[in-house]
Amino acid sequence: MSLVTEFSATPLPPRENRLLAALPLVVILAVAYLAVPLLANEYLIEAILLPFLALSLAGLGLNLLTGYAGQVSLGSAAFMAVGAFAAFNFDLRLGLPLPASMLLAAVAAAAIGLVFGLPSLRLRGFYLAVSTLAAQFFVQWALNKFGWFSNGSASGIIAAPAIGIAGLPLSGPVGRYLFALVTVTAITFLLHRIVNGPQGVNLIAVRDNETAARVIGVPVLRTKLFAFALSSAIIGIAGVIWAFAYLRTVEPAGFNLDRSFQILFIVIIGGLATIRGAFLGAGLIVVFPLVLSRLTGLFFDGVADPGTIELLERIALGTVIILFLIAEPSGLSAILSRLKRRLAAPRAG
Amino acid sequence: MTSALLRAHPAAHPVRDRTEAQALPKGETRAATGAVLALEAVSLGFGGIKALTAVSLDVKAGEIRAVIGPNGAGKSSLINVISGLYQADAGEIRFGAQRFRAVPPQRLAVLGVARTFQNLALFPALTVAENILSGLVFQRRSGVLGHLLSLPAARREQARQNGQVRKVAERLHLTAALDRKVGTLPYGLQKRVELARALVAEPRLLLLDEPMAGMTATEKAEMAGFVRQARDASGLSVILIEHDIGVVMGLSDHIAVLDHGVKIADGTPDQVRRDPEVIRAYLGAEAA
Questions:
Q1: Are B59 and B236 in contact (CB under 8 A)?
Q2: Which fold has domain B36-112+203-287?
Q3: Keyword Nucleotide-binding, does the record have it (chain B) (predicted)?
Q4: Which part of chain B has CATH 3.40.50.300?
Q5: Tens digit of each residue's pLDDT (9 = 90 or more) over B155-165
Q6: ipTM score of the complex?
Q7: Is A121 on the interface with B (CB under 8 A)?
Q8: How far is the C-alpha of B37 from the C-alpha of B96, rounded, in Å?
Q9: How far apart are CA B163 and CA B161, in angstroms?
Q10: d(CA A85, CA A255)
Q11: CB atoms A201 and B106 under 8 Å
Q12: pLDDT tens digit string along B109-153?
């Protein structure tokens, strides 16, 4: 019944309101591009913003596949690994400039994603999720098994080369931050265009009703493979940022199943099929544990041993996630929309 | 069911006579162009159950052909065979000159066939406009890159398709709802959006699987009007499955009656109404 009332109760936003709605984005970009490089300290950039940007981008990639196209994947970290190792090898063996090796890394991740997307043509839901685990395990196995990928390093851990574009060194914290920020902004903009364009209609049509989509002539197979390829490419670039800008080392163990789950949680907590959901989810997943460890450090230091404190932090994080999802199953993005509506309501009335 | 059949007498339904007077001569002139759809001895079984037994059917251009029958008679199976969701065990399906044993569903739209579903099959997260637009996707030539780069060809195509969407929305009185998410619309409107999605590419054959199920009498009359108007405007053929006998009698040029997967009658509404086989099938269904 609420459906009917909603139909009559939401008027279309007039043009001024849309301009007003773009204001938060302008503020966020101004802070990100101007305030942070000028004011932020090293800790904020190294420990919070860089992993936040890398995981946001991975979340965006997975959200395209899972949120928009409805294909569940548990192999995200594998595609991050493919991106990171591909970029490392393109840099090492061909000496390509960073943008080129990053682009080729995206292509490599897309190709692997395409291969592991093939089961989606026959499998759905949980069955597809299980088959994407194959990507997770296979990629990690291959990277460990063949020393060539990590240039024969005995530990499998390799230092990422210092980054720079066109002779401009970007290896300092601010440089790496700006490199990550520009990359994430550009891809976010492109993805926004794609999901709100004709291709977005195809993706959601396939997700919402595959049979109907097929019968009315939406190219279902092509749409699914497109989603897998593009999603993997984006996650691959997230892997490049993770390894080159954040950790500055490349190792297979960092791209394990835990990371895949982390990215899936980011998407679910942030809000499926929303662009900002990836950022909100990544914010919660990256920032909240840090805040929590500060707090527990403040209150429990010396009272309990570090093992117990870490356990308590995990319990607290889990509890918060459960509470969030009970309060709003559609994720943080929906909570934000509700807040905005509530803030706007008194002005309208 | 029986009472509904008997109540649908010409005297009680002047609408029907008007339809017949207008539509039949038209239908006859179009008959010369040949059948838009021809089923030849189509059979379909699920395990031991025969859903359809040697059903043959010819649908001419511009004809509205109802398919009626008791529950489980095979009506939906028939539409699913025509649209390729089920594969016939025997027989042949022809669209114009193209012959199929198994119709490829992903080519249906290209073949000029559109359908609606018994239970709504819309995309709830998309707006009404986007839902209707999805019916034009198969005609699209420009790809993702064209859109991302805003190439002139892609922009022109988008503008043209948006124009088509607006046109069909206007015809079906959906203009005010174009920007709404389909999932937030009342049921009757959703049914209409599904019809719009089927009509937007101007198909030659339209398959309607209970387009008026669960509607109020007013909504049914509206829907019947839209179907008739679409036929009159573009001369498309319609296969209509509907339980409301009053609507069926008023809207159809010909009626085929299925019972237990067998076609037991096929003719004008008048012929079908008097057919003793039909009356027996409905009585039997009611008694059972």
A1: no
A2: Rossmann fold (3.40.50)
A3: yes
A4: 36-112+203-287
A5: 999 999 999 99
A6: 0.83
A7: no
A8: 6
A9: 5
A10: 11
A11: no
A12: 999 999 999 999 999 999 999 999 999 999 999 888 999 998 999
